[in-house]
């Protein structure tokens, strides 16, 4: 629905409250009942918004998600609230009091910035998206700090703000866009806009090639509960710095410019670095902390002889190392009564679900199998999460 206005009326808001939590299987019955007393388009819009709010809970939490308004694209593209709050806190630490939020979407980042006490100019050229951002600022009581403007970001004067935040669209009609110059607006424009401000942050895809990072930018990769969420190019901070930031925390690993870790035989422990560490190319820094090395020069698994807890990698105690062989794995799991099998892979073409179907785990015990390469050879490593 492109026009939110009917949902913002007392009748629309009452309908939204009534349809909250409606299960998909119950929608038809609920719609039929409500259409006796309300216009059919309004009922349909309320049910559609309720579905979007349910999807948004994972990003915004139950309380905010059920007060906010969403578009399908906005739910997909909006920043997770925890990540937005972290970035807003960092801007506050940098002395920022006002931000031009370009390509603001439905306002997720603007909300976090405003809650941190920052004045925000939120800009988006899509009328429906801008209207949604405005409705969200109102719904959360932040309209006094957030000015929403429907405009082309390339034509907006940002000189009156301490900082610029740009979140270019990274999805097109055919799905995700991997070329930074195909973003809307292109990364080169966003970088140029960033350089006009005292401080700037550009949100980009975590898979961005490192060679695309400007020399005068700090590059930060952010994960939340182990899932890599985004990369950020910072200007006006530490040119050339690279960091991996893990949420909750935050815990930040700064790159020391170390060479690639040595390749060594399997030790007692295998460490799986956090995805943000891997994307930031900081596996060497984790290996140095653990006094470990790589099993294979092309695989981001670290092995070491001792257990050293680190927030930047998950440790597993390895009990077996076998050449890849499904029959041998099935026999070993049956012998040990493994019924709960976690399959992880890196550098293997085998799909975890396919392997799980073939070995048919049964029994009261649990195990983890890593499908990987050791010195170039397809290998299975069997173990379990290491006890702290």
Cα gyration radius (Å): 24 Å
> Which geometry do the CA atoms define?
globular
End-to-end C-alpha gap:
51 Å
- Mean pLDDT equals 94
Number of helices: 13
Structural class: alpha/beta
Proportion in β-strands: 25-35%
Instruction: List segments where confidence is low: pLDDT < 50 over at least 5 consecutive residues.
Output: none
Helix content: 25-40%
Major sheet: arrangement of strands: 3-2-1-4-7-9-8-10-11
Largest sheet: 9 strands, mixed
SSE layout and pairing:
Elements: H1 5-8, H2 10-19, H3 27-34, H4 40-65, H5 72-77, H6 81-93, E1 98-102, H7 108-115, E2 119-124, H8 127-139, E3 146-150, E4 163-166, E5 171-172, E6 175-176, H9 187-194, E7 199-204, E8 218-224, E9 227-235, E10 242-247, E11 251-254, E12 269-273, H10 275-279, H11 283-290, E13 293-294, E14 302-304, E15 313-323, H12 326-335, E16 338-345, H13 352-359, E17 365-374, E18 377-385
Helix pairs in contact: 2-4, 6-7
Describe this structure in words.
The protein is built from 13 helices and 18 strands. It has 388 residues and is α/β, with parallel strands linked by helices. A hairpin with a 2-residue loop joins strand 17 and strand 18. The chain has helices spanning 5-8, 10-19, 27-34, 40-65, 72-77, 81-93, 108-115, 127-139, 187-194, 275-279, 283-290, 326-335, 352-359, and strands at residues 98-102, 119-124, 146-150, 163-166, 171-172, 175-176, 199-204, 218-224, 227-235, 242-247, 251-254, 269-273, 293-294, 302-304, 313-323, 338-345, 365-374, 377-385. The longest helix is centred in the N-terminal third of the chain and has 26 residues, at 40-65.
